[in-house]
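Case study 2.
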Amino acid sequence: MTRLVNEADIKRMGRVALLMGGWSAEREVSLKSGEAVLLALKTLGVDVEAIDVKERRLPDLAGFARAFIMLHGRGGEDGVIQGALDVLGLPYTGTGVLGSALGMDKLRTKLVWRGQELPTPDFATLTAQTDFAAVLERLGAPVMVKPSREGSSIGMAKVETAEELEQAYRAAAVYDDQIIAERWIQGAEYTIAILGDRALPVIRLETPHSFYDYDAKYRADDTRYHCPSGLSEQDEQTVQRLALDAFRAVEGRGWGRVDLMRDEQGGLWLLEVNTVPGMTDHSLVPMAARAAGLSFEALVWEILSTSLEGEG
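Prediction:
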């Protein structure tokens, strides 16, 4: 088998801590992603050790040269682990503290996008005192309810009535104290993987579920992924440029993923950004990488290489 990278580059990486697991609602997905990345790094010949940050603490990172962050959700994708690694002086993959904190917070991501005149669906914040009927009157029905700081579609629901909206708010509030209702966009959903300074081929998602929920993402066998996306070359490039602009707007760095909708009139609407996307066998970044001619191992190596930014 031909070596993907040379021994000098592997040696430069040094000992790598693969951070996975954690304590968020996305722990299960993180462990699966971590196992896939661990195998790829070992196949490449990298000196790597998997560390479940729920079970081990920061002093255990002494002696490592860098960290590969494969933590999804709170504690790993929200700037917390990034800040800790900055204090330790340990280089890591992907986005830094600010971008991670923004990207994890759907509400503030939307506020940043609006400030930069990037298109995102209208929304409202929800509390126990919200007039749910008034929210529906303003946004129209249906709406999507989302915990602001969770991923993998956890706690999300599509609702049609004020009663359903209140019920969905209470269900989402189990996961977060910041909940948003977002205007429903009828149309096709797309996801765009970002690697370095380029957007990978666009993927169009198709599911018989009412939306691309947790089961559709990780368990269902009837979710369909279209890559090529079916967009014209010009439209594909437009979508890729918008995704790059959206990622950079929240200080995204290294790699990530942007999700958006294209309505029935052709308008594009940004939904959210992921700064540590999944790397499981159902995940979208590896799928886009394959379409761009990158093996899973080559993708993992490129992600690991983002930890070299800023080194001499």
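The first strand starts at residue 16 and ends at 20.
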